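Good morning C.,

I know you're traveling, so I'll keep this short. The sequence:
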Amino acid sequence: MTNTNDFRQYSYSSDTSYLIESFSYNRGSHAPKLRPEEDPKLKLREGKSKLKSKTQLRKEQKLSFRKAAAVVSVAVICLLLIAFALHSFALKNELTRDIQKTQTSIANANSEHISLESQLDALVSISTIDKYAVEKLHMSKVKSNQIKYISVDEFKTERENVLTDKNKEISNKNDN
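The tokens, ready to paste straight into the viewer:
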């Protein structure tokens, strides 16, 4: 059980009491100056400095030139890849727009087709044809006395007779 007067449960490391305990009168209130870190690749030589020969200088120049050429070539390759990616994205967007335009024109053509079919169905109705035949062509409907029935067998025999007669006439003309 905790006592209501026990404030230890509410103390944090950023409290003033902890800051007072950590304060050192020797150092003062400012942070100590840090000595700069030395680069392990760079060495300071005191005394006689040894001069490099021309061959060593040329080797170092060639090596540095190769490193620079490698860095430049990698940078150029990266730029080319980025340019290729941008070009492919632009081409993809253009093709997508073309596809959308084509789909829109197909949808418009389909709606026009449906409209024209409905107009055609309205024009081809039986009542429209009857009305056109009576009013424009001055036709009348067939009456029962105008209908003539023909037997198929009789029609075939008559047709054969007519064809044989024509064949005879043609052969007579060819003989003369």
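Safe travels,
E.
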